[in-house]
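pasting input
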Amino acid sequence: MKVKMEEGEKDLKAVWMDDNKVKMIDQRFLPSELKFYTAGDYKDIHKAIKKMMVRGAPAIGVTAAYGMAQAIIQEKKIEKVAEHIKSARPTAYDLFNAVEFMLDHAEKPVKAAEDYASNVIEKCRKIGEHGSELIENEDRILTHCNAGALATVDYGTALAPIRIASERGKDIHVFVDETRPRLQGARLTAWELHNEGIPHSVIVDNASGHYMFRGEIDLVIVGTDRIVSNGDIANKIGTYEKAVVAKENDIPFYVAAPVTTYDSSTETGRDIPIENRDEKEIKMINNSLIAPKDSPARNPAFDVTPAEYISGFITEKGIFSPSELDDMF
Amino acid sequence: MKVKMEEGEKDLKAVWMDDNKVKMIDQRFLPSELKFYTAGDYKDIHKAIKKMMVRGAPAIGVTAAYGMAQAIIQEKKIEKVAEHIKSARPTAYDLFNAVEFMLDHAEKPVKAAEDYASNVIEKCRKIGEHGSELIENEDRILTHCNAGALATVDYGTALAPIRIASERGKDIHVFVDETRPRLQGARLTAWELHNEGIPHSVIVDNASGHYMFRGEIDLVIVGTDRIVSNGDIANKIGTYEKAVVAKENDIPFYVAAPVTTYDSSTETGRDIPIENRDEKEIKMINNSLIAPKDSPARNPAFDVTPAEYISGFITEKGIFSPSELDDMF
C-alpha cells in the first residue's frame, strides 16, 4: 500500500520482516499518527496481536508466521512459542493455521514465513484483479469497516478491487461508512484511501441508505469473516442493513474474500455465534462518556447477511454467485 | 417528564416560565450533567435557541412564546424582539408560528404563552394515548434520534406512546439507536428513558438491523420533521434505513407527529431539500479527530422515507395510514 510520509510516498505493508525482526504499523495510533512497532521476540508478537497493534485475520496470520520464524532463528522452544502466540487471539482461525504451517516448515523458517505472507498478498491481488472488472469508470462505491491492506498485509479484500480499478485509471469515488462502534472505516479505510490518493467521503453509517436511495451509489463491496454453506455471511455489524438497502435499490452487493473464508461445515448464517463485546466500546469515545452511565448498551460485533442479498463473491479464483459456492470452493 | 435529582425524582419540562423568567434544561450538557439556564431577556432567548441549549421544533416554539411574553412584560419594542427571536433558527417553522401567535395575543402575554405551551404538551399526550394502543405487553421497540420530552417540552412524539404504555404497566424494552453524528439517541433518549425507569439498551445505528433480523424488535416508532402530501417523510439521517429493514422483516414502522407537521404543499419526499451540515460533526468527537484530517466527510442531516415503508402516522387526532392523510389532516 502507498503511504504518504515526510520523506515522500513509500510502499509499505501492514507487517514485514527485516533483519530477523518483525516490524509493523501500530494501527492503534491511526489515523492521527503513523507509528511502527518492532517485535524483538515471540513475547512482543503475542503483545502486538493481543493489544491489536495489528488486526484483521490475514495480517494476524502473517504476523504469527514471522514471529514463529524469528523464534526458530532465536532457537527458542518452538512448541512453547507456538502455544503462546496462538493464545493471543483464541478465536483467530488464520492465527492457528499460520502457526501450524510454520511448525511444518521449520527447516527454512524465514523463507516459509515469506512464502506464507506472499501467498496471502497474492490472493488479495487476485481478488483485486477479478473485482476490478466489476467497477466501471465513474462508479461510486460504498464499503463498510476496513477490509483493506491494514487487515491483510497488502491490497485488502474489499479494498483490493478499488485499489486496482484506481491504478488502472478508473475515476471512482468511495463512500466510507465510519463503522461504529470501533470506527474502522473512518480511522483505517479513509486513511488507506487518502494515502492511495483515491477520492472518498467519510459518512456516518446512517447516511449510506440516503445515498443509495438517491442513486448516488453504484456498487457495494464489503469483506467477510465467514461464508457458510448456503452462502450466508458474517461480517462487521451493519453489513446486513447495507445489504438489505442495496437490494431494495437494485444496487449490486459484493463480498470479497479468499476461498479459505468458506466454512462448508456450517449450514446457515443463523448457526454462526455472534460475539457480544464490551459496552464500553459504544459508551466511551476517546475516554468520554456519550450515554448516561446507568444506561446499558448492547454491542454485537458482527451480523449475518443472508445469501439472498449477495450479488456475488469476489475470490482469488474468480467471481461466484451464492448458488455456485459449493461447486467452486 | 420524570427526572432523577439529588433531592429525589421531579416532574420537569424542557422549558417553563417561572416568576417572569424563562427557565430550561441546558441540553448541551446532557447526559453527563443536568444544568439549567435562565433567560433574563429576549437576547438570552435568542442565545438559548441559537446555541441549541434547547432543540426540537416544538420546544423551540414554546421557548420563543415564553420569550415573547417576557419581552412584552418588560415593555421591550416587540416588533424588534420578534425579529431577533425569529432569526435564531431561520429554518424553524414552529419558531415563526410561536412568535406570530404571541404578536396576535399580546394583551395577556403570560396566559397566551402558557396556552401555547399547554397546547403543544396536550398534543403530545394525545399522541401518546393513541400510540400506546399499538404497544403490546413485552414489546421491544426501536426508536431513532430523540423525539422525546426534551424536544417537545413534555412527553415527546415518538417517546409519548412509550411513556404512556409504560405508565399503564406494560412491560416494554426500548432499543435506542445512538444516532450518529450528533448522538441524540445515546445522549438524550437514553437519558429520558433512564429517568423514567423504562428498560432500554443503547445500540449503535449499525446494530438495529441485526436485532430486527433476529426477531428481537416488534415495533419501530420515530418522529418526523415533515410529512408531505404523498405520505413520504423527512426525519433524522438513518430513518430511511430503519424503515427499509423493518419492512423487510415485517416489523410495523410508525411515525409519531402532530398534524401541523403535515405539509400538503410539497408533493413527494424527493422535493424536500436536505440540509448538509458541517463535516466536523462527523470527524470530531469530543474535540478529538476520528478520521484523517485530509479525508472529506459528507454530513446530510436528514433523509427521506417513502410512504410505502410507513405503517401509519400516530397523531393527536388518531392513527392514520399514509393513504388516509389527505382526508384526515
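fyi Chain B has twelve helices and 18 strands.
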